[in-house]
Amino acid sequence: MDTAFPPPGFVPVPSAIEGIEVFQPAPPDEEQLEETVDFKCPQCGATTAYSVASGGLTCAHCGYFEAPNKPLVGQNAQELEFTVQSLERSAQGWGEVRLDLACQNCGAQTSIPVDNISDTCPFCGSNRVVHHQAAQDILRPWCLIPFKIEAEQCNRIAAAWLTNSWMVPASLKNRAGIHSFYGIYLPFWTFDALTKADWKAEVGHIVTERYFENGEWKTRVVTEWRWESGHAEETFDDLIIRGTDRIGSRLLTEISNFNLTELAPYEPKYLAGLGAKAYDIPLEKSWEMARGEMRERTRQACVQQASTSQVRNFSMKLDFDDEQWRYILLPVYLTSYIHQDQKYQVVVNGQNGIISGQQPADWNKIWLVIGLLLTPGLLLGLIGLITIPVAGAGIGIGAFGFVLLVLGLVLSAVIYQKAQALDDL
Questions:
Q1: Rg (Cα) of the chain, in Å, rounded?
Q2: To 5 degrees, how large is the angle CA 308–CA 310–CA 312?
Q3: 125 with 307: CB under 8 angstroms?
Q4: Of 147, 134, 222, 135, whose CA–CA distance to 184 is shortest?
Q5: Which residues have a Cβ under 8 Å from the Cβ of 50 and sit 6 or more positions away?
Q6: Closest by Cα among 356, 185, 183, 328 to 260
Q7: Are 150 and 298 in contact (CB under 8 A)?
Q8: pTM, full prediction
Q9: pLDDT by residue (tens digit) across 44-61?
Q10: Most distant CA pair in the chain, distance
Q11: Distance from CA of residue 148 to its chain's centroid?
């Protein structure tokens, strides 16, 4: 009688009952952590790097080229359910020998090739960095979008971006551009789910009613509140949630329109010669963020079902079904520049070249423009007040000045908000 415990081929799993041990069949060998590999040219032995132009590994010494083994899979890439087993059976590590560049200034950790000993943090530009071997106990990405934009293109994109607003200092426009763009794969999570909501609310209807007052019938308009209810379902496919907080959420949002049909199965070869960032926002927290966005979209769908736009005492019972997730890497270029001793961050979408970044606002110029917008209305208003006794001519002048002043205030508010947005990024 076989008394081996646990039985061969079984592994322990967490038990919900204290004192009870639970085991399950061990995952197949092929799903265990793969060995790490180095990327050396098979012809000359030199280190190879991923080439954006050719889409594969390229040796700069002898010209050897090797394309990735797997074709694009797009949004058909495998997704995982929210189960303990799916996490336990997920591969771990980068799949190649890499180093972690740990920044002592901002705390960011960046995975870099072993032969690319960078001394600058790509997130904050600090030189206070320490190198150590990259850990292999993190989840391995399921897929990624390869870089399609080259670093040289980013310089031209940035040069045009620096001159796209009159609100920035003139000294920025005189710059030849921003250089030293660093190509890095940033972590993102994608989530699928079906939300089902039953809602109830009081909905306001404008009605006209008659009432008797002072011996006569009159009419008035009132809001009549009626209870309404309904059911809404929303399908979410590949909702993208950032996996790192090292870059401002607004910057990432402005460049996050990636085309997920170009997803490719993860291969370490894509990372050759490039940086990569492991997630520091874990799956559980990212899923909470995704659920919050799904909940709000579903709430809006429920409110839109109401017979009018006036809604109060809204309540909603929400269920999530068919929840799935993926861990992916997306291509981004990072750089920073200094203006008046202040550092500003710039990011470029490595797939389509869309740029976003921090730009200083020239408040001297902005206040001057606001003053010019408000001056005509104030002057005409003042003239109108002075000339009112003269045959009433001042009334028309004052009214025209008031209109100009209102327009000036509206335009000034728009300009101020845009300038404030530059500083707040």
A1: 30
A2: 125
A3: no
A4: 147
A5: 56, 57, 58, 146, 147, 269, 270, 271, 272, 273, 274
A6: 328
A7: no
A8: 0.73
A9: 666 666 667 666 666 766
A10: 118
A11: 19
